[in-house]
Specification:
8-stranded parallel beta sheet, alpha/beta, 6-stranded antiparallel beta sheet, 2 domains, Immunoglobulin-like, 11 helices
C-alpha cells in the first residue's frame, strides 16, 4: 500500500503543525473544547443554590478548576432561587457561569430567555430544541438573539436530527451528535451506548475546528459514584472510563463532567485530571481526531494532529477480551523512526522504527501515546483549505481518490503559498471530497 492510500485511511483533517486553522463563529469563544460540569446526570432535579455552591467549592479544592474545567453549568430541573447571586459566587472563584433553556414553550420569544441570561451574567448557554420540526431556524434565532444582546456566551445546541453539516458550525459552538448518553430506563453500565455516541461523533470529525466542536454528550467518568446511582448498581469498568476519556480527548470533544465532583474517588480523579491527556483535548490546532485504522480482531487506532507537529494516538481494544494492538507508522502517514511518549505512564518510551505495540489491552481498554516523527502525508477537506498556508517545503496537493496532482510535476514548493488556488478540480470544475497533501518522501 503506497503513501497516498495510507493517508486516505488516516483522514487527517488538517496538516499537523503546517496549517493555520480557520475559526467558526469568529467571536473569540470556545477556541478549544469547553470544559466544565453539568448536574443533570448525577443530580437530576435534586440541585439547588446550596448544592451548586458546594460543587463549585469541591471543584476548586479537588483541582478541577486548575485543570481547566472552568464552566459551572446548569441544566433542566434545577431549583434555583437567585441566579445572579449564584453567578457571582462561582465567578468569584474563577469559574464561568452556564445556564439552560429549551423551546418547550414555543410562545416564549428567544429574546426573553437571553434577556434573563444577560441579567444573570451567563457565559455559556445550553439550548434544547429537539421537539421542533424547524430546529435549525430556532437555533439560528437564538444565535442571533445572543449576538444582539452584546454579551458573549458559549452556545451549546441539542437538537434532532443529530447529523452535523458545515452550516451548523456557523450556528453554534457545540452541536450534539447523538442522543443522551444515559437515558431513563437504560442499563447504566451498557458500554454499547457509550460507544454508539463515540461512533456518531467520529462520523462528523471533518467539521471540527477552533470555535466549533462536535458534542457526544457528557463525560460520564465516575458517574456511578453519584447520588443518582443506587447502591450495588454495577458501573462501567475503570478501563472503559479511561477509554472514554481517551477518545473524547482525541476527538476534541467538550469535556463536561457528568459525575458529582464531591464524590469522585481517587480512580475517577486520576482519569479526569490527567494533564497530559487534557492537553491533547485542548491543543490549539483544533483538529478533530478520528478512527484511522480498524483491525479484523477489533483493535483500533485513533489519531489527532497537534499544533507542534506531534500526533496523539489512542490504541483501543473494542472487543470483550484482552487484545494486543499495534500501530504501523506507514498506516498513519508517518516515517520512522518515531519517538513515543505514554500519556498514562507519563514516561518516554523511546524511538521505534516501524511500529508501536500495546500488549494485552483489557476489554474495551485503551492507551494514549504522543508521537513525534516525520509526517509523510495528510488529508484535508477542501473547505478547510481556504486561506490556509503551508509552512513547509516540498509538498504536493492531489485528489485523494485518484492521486492525480494539480501540477504535472508531482512535487513542488508550496512554502508560504495559499493552498486554495492550487486545489485540484475535476473536469467539470468540482473539488474532490478530500485533498491529499503529501511531503516529498525522498
Amino acid at each position: 500500500m503506497n503513501n497516498w492510500q495510507n493517508a486516505l485511511f488516516a483522514l487527517i483533517l488538517g496538516c499537523a503543525g503546517c496549517l493555520t486553522p480557520v475559526h467558526a463563529l469568529n467571536d473569540g469563544l470556545a477556541l478549544t473544547p469547553p470544559m466544565g460540569w453539568n448536574p443533570w446526570t448525577c443530580l437530576k432535579f435534586d440541585v439547588n443554590d446550596a448544592i451548586f455552591k458546594e460543587v463549585a467549592d469541591s471543584m476548586v479544592s479537588r483541582g478541577f478548576l486548575d485543570a481547566g474545567y472552568i464552566f459551572m453549568n446548569q441544566d433542566g430541573g434545577g431549583r434555583y432561587s437567585n441566579q445572579k447571586a449564584l453567578a457571582d459566587y462561582v465567578k468569584a472563584k474563577g469559574f464561568k457561569f452556564g445556564v439552560y433553556g429549551n423551546n418547550v414553550n414555543y410562545t416564549t420569544p428567544v429574546s426573553n430567555w437571553v434577556a434573563n441570561w444577560v441579567a444573570w451574567g451567563a457565559d455559556y448557554v445550553k439550548w434544547d430544541c429537539y421537539r421542533s420540526p424547524t430546529q435549525d431556524t430556532i437555533f439560528k434565532s437564538m444565535r442571533d438573539a445572543i449576538k444582539a444582546s452584546g454579551r458573549l456566551m458559549v452556545y451549546s445546541a441539542h437538537g434532532k436530527p443529530y447529523g452535523v453539516t458545515s452550516a451548523h458550525t456557523d450556528i453554534t459552538h457545540m452541536w450534539r451528535t447523538g442522543p443522551d448518553i444515559m437515558q431513563p430506563g437504560q442499563n447504566p453500565n451498557d458500554w454499547n451506548w457509550i460507544f454508539a455516541n463515540i461512533n456518531y461523533n467520529n462520523a462528523y470529525a471533518q467539521h471540527v475546528k477552533p470555535g466549533y466542536w462536535n458534542d457526544p454528550d457528557f463525560l460520564v467518568v465516575g458517574v456511578h459514584e453519584s447520588k443518582w446511582y443506587s447502591p450495588g448498581v454495577p458501573s462501567f469498568t475503570w478501563d472503559e472510563y479511561r477509554t472514554m476519556m481517551n477518545l473524547y480527548c482525541v476527538m476534541a470533544a467538550p469535556l463536561i463532567l457528568a459525575g458529582d465532583p464531591r464524590r469522585f474517588s481517587k480512580q475517577s480523579m486520576d482519569i479526569l485530571l490527567n494533564k497530559e491527556v487534557i492537553a491533547v483535548n485542548q491543543d490549539s490546532l483544533g483538529h478533530g481526531g478520528r478512527r484511522v485504522k480498524t483491525y479484523p480482531d477489533s483493535g483500533e487506532v485513533w489519531m489527532k494532529n497537534l499544533k507542534n507537529g506531534d500526533r496523539a494516538l489512542v490504541l483501543f481494544n473494542r472487543s470483550a477480551k484482552p487484545l494486543t494492538v499495534a500501530v504501523k507508522w506507514s498506516d498513519i502517514g508517518m516515517g520512522g523512526p518515531v519517538f513515543v511518549r505514554d500519556l498514562w505512564e507519563h514516561a518516554d518510551k523511546g524511538f521505534f522504527a516501524d511500529s508501536f505495540t500495546m500488549q494485552n489491552l483489557p476489554p474495551h481498554g485503551s492507551g494514549m501515546i504522543r508521537v513525534k516523527g516525520q509526517a509523510i502525508s495528510s488529508v484535508i477537506a477542501p473547505e478547510r483549505a481556504q486561506g490556509l498556508r503551508v509552512h513547509s517545503t516540498s509538498w504536493r496537493i492531489a485528489n485523494v481518490n485518484t492521486n492525480k496532482s494539480y501540477h504535472s510535476a508531482p512535487i513542488f514548493n508550496l512554502l508560504g503559498q495559499d493552498v486554495a488556488p492550487r486545489m485540484p478540480r475535476t473536469a467539470s470544475g468540482q473539488l474532490p471530497a478530500l485533498l491529499l497533501i503529501e511531503r516529498n518522501a525522498q
